[in-house]
Amino acid sequence: MDLIIVESPTKARTLSRFLGSGYVVEATTGHIKDLPKNKLSIDVEHDFKPDYRVVEKRSETIRKIQTASKKAKNVFIATDPDREGEAIAQHVAEIIKDKHSLRSKDQKDTKILREKTDKNLAVSQYRNIVVSRIVFHEITKNAVEEAIKNPRDVDKNLVHAQTARRVLDRLVGYKLSPLLWKKVRRGLSAGRVQTVCVRLIVEKEREIEAFKSKEYWEIFVNLQTSKTPNEQKNTFEVQLIKINDKKAEIQNKENADKVVSDLKASEYTVLDVVKREVNKSPYPPFTTSTMSQAAARIFGWSSKKTMSVAQALYEEGLITYHRTDSMNISLEAIRKTRDFIKKQYGGEYLPEKPKFYKTSSKVAQEAHEAIRPTSVNSKYELQNSRYEREGEMLYKLIWKRFVACQMTASVYDETTIDVVTEFKKERTEEIKNKYLLRVSGQIMKFDGWKILYVKVDYDKVAVDSSLRHPERSKGSFDADPAQLPDVSKDETLKLLKVIPLQKFTQPPARYTEASLIKVLEKLGIGRPSTYAPTINTIQIRNYVEKNEGKFSPTSVGIAVNDFLIGNFPDVFEYQFTAGMEEGLDKVANGEEKWVELIRDFYKPFEKKLLDVEKKAKRVAIEAEKTGEKCPECKKGDIVIRTGRFGKFLSCDKFPECKYTAKYLDKIGKKCPDCKKGEVIVKKTKKGRKFYGCSRYPKCKWASWRKPS
DNA sequence: CAGTGAGCGAGCTTCCGCTTGACTT
């Protein structure tokens, strides 16, 4: 019997199904060793030696792996092919070795026979067991069999890269958080990822505050061609785009009036009619990031919800792994999908060659495939699940996006009509300006991959606004070309109407979960497994608030942000993680020692730490005023403060006046149960919002959903 | 189901990344 060890229990189940009886497959369920969280667990004085311990919650898992390893002939450690996976592999090797070392202690005659690395043959050998490391990037029988043919030893350099990553994050988090407890408020936290996340939100808010709206004008002209006698199709609308060969920028009413009067006094000639064919390629298959963005935009789901639903689909065997930064697709899946497309839609929907997609992210680890249905032929089934309905919605979204990514482009006919002004003879003297106006539009000639979004029954679920290409903002006015009359070069047109429109520039948009994840991914900050938890953390810490789906910073968030950015600018630079990744790559390649990497970071960091600890004053957090006067001392203002148990009301004359009161976040509705109390918004210890009655504990009504 | 803030000082809070459950007030 051979033992294979993977990370995910679902993966273990899948593997044992198609590998047969010669194999036992066990899962680690993530990391099995880590730094204990109640202390720093890093010996800064002695080369940053980390104190990795077995994770308490995994003791049962570890025991199972150890027991199974005793019966095995070969142990293949098949944890994910990335940095974290290599560290888990190392830890698995250690706990297996421990088991056998224990035996050698008990029974003097059984000891480790050999522990060495050969080039091809692998391996650490204990008595009659061979332990080796294998990797595969897709869950197919082929991939696993290939992997088993190519065993290797655990890559120590890659493990060291993980150690460096882990130690760095621990040092940043566990050195800066206590500093915040001292200088700002108890219970706060800082970290390489979460602090940058808050920073993005704070800086966006400041951009919005600093934003000054500017007036501008867009001018449209309705024209008529005499060539087409057919009444309904002989008019069209063009937009002013250039004045004297320069981009038309009209900033106020005076200028707009001048242009309008010029345009009214002009004659119009067709300068050019350009027709061309435009191809629109399908979108790449989903990754965690793009899937979360799409589900947020289309269904309005939080990333946490999307990930939970995806987890259910994954466990049900309906989709591939959902925490991934990769767009790779197994060749087998591509082949089957191509067969499906040809059969279902016909050859014109099938490109000559399969389409491959590549991640643009430099920090991508690509341990898994893209998110795709495990079988394009399989019908959706997820009965008796709490996510029955949502599961279907998400599955169909994933299914379409994936099948589409292997289909041909959709083809459009694009028509662009350019019109120039000439001046009526009698006014040539007055009007010196030359105006260029344009209209362009596209009409679908061949639907290609868009057939999935137009005709297929699945469409009720995903009328997909994410699929709109961002072609609109090219400065020219788009129209449906079916509505464009057939005009020709040098033709004279009749002016019908000039339409000036006053507009104002809009402030930048606040982040949503989706746009935040997009930026984090672009910056290489955080990983697919941490996007949702990070967004959760910064809300639980009360650094940011989500209102109508948009994030804004709280006064605590702003205070902490300014303190950290002010004192530790380099750690929370947007480029810091990218720099760290570069260093980690060097460690992984054996070009640099991990201890050196950490030392180079820690030396100046520690100095700064001591400096700030000594010099920085305690930061005052601005309390929000309610506008009410204190009923006790009649002098102070009532403000909203945050204590250990959440928000409460107090007098701002504290400590002279000790008035306090409960803070009730009323939504303006009576309790549906007792009809006497008010419905208020409360938060669980974990930070989740729920609705309750203000008369609690007299009335015990509570609900996760907002009462109607 | 009272308590919260400032300060006193005991004992506590805290990171990121890998993986799932247990199941919320």
List keywords for this structure.
alpha+beta; Topoisomerase I, domain 3; six-stranded antiparallel barrel; Rossmann fold; 17 helices; globular; DNA-binding; 708 residues; Topoisomerase I, domain 2
List the SSEs and their pairings.
Layout: E1 2-6, H1 9-19, E2 23-27, E3 33-34, E4 42-43, E5 49-50, E6 53-54, H2 59-71, E7 74-77, H3 83-106, E8 114-115, E9 124-126, E10 129-133, H4 141-149, H5 156-183, H6 194-210, E11 215-225, E12 235-243, E13 246-247, H7 253-264, E14 266-280, H8 288-299, H9 303-315, H10 331-345, H11 388-405, E15 410-423, E16 435-446, H12 451-454, E17 477-478, E18 492-504, H13 513-523, H14 531-540, E19 544-547, E20 550-553, H15 555-567, H16 576-588, H17 594-615, E21 624-629, E22 637-643, E23 646-651, E24 660-662, E25 665-670, E26 678-683, E27 689-693, E28 702-703
Parallel strand pairs: 1-2, 1-7, 7-10, 16-17
Antiparallel strand pairs: 3-6, 4-5, 8-9, 9-10, 11-12, 11-18, 12-13, 12-16, 14-15, 14-18, 15-16, 19-20, 21-22, 22-23, 23-24, 25-26, 26-27, 27-28
The protein binds one DNA strand of 25 nucleotides through helix 3, helix 5, strand 22, strand 23 and strand 27.
Characterize the largest beta sheet: strand count, sense, and whether it forms a barrel.
Answer: 6 strands, mixed
Number of helical regions: 17
At CATH level 3, the topology of the largest domain is Topoisomerase I, domain 2
Output the CATH homologous superfamily of the largest domain: Topoisomerase I, domain 2
CATH class of the largest domain: Mainly Alpha
EC number: 5.6.2.1
Family: Belongs to the type IA topoisomerase family.
Active site: 321 (o-(5'-phospho-dna)-tyrosine intermediate)
InterPro entries: Topo_IA (IPR000380), Topo_IA_2 (IPR003601), Topo_IA_AS (IPR023406), Topo_IA_cen (IPR013497), Topo_IA_cen_sub1 (IPR013824), Topo_IA_cen_sub2 (IPR013825), Topo_IA_cen_sub3 (IPR013826), Topo_IA_core_domain (IPR023405)
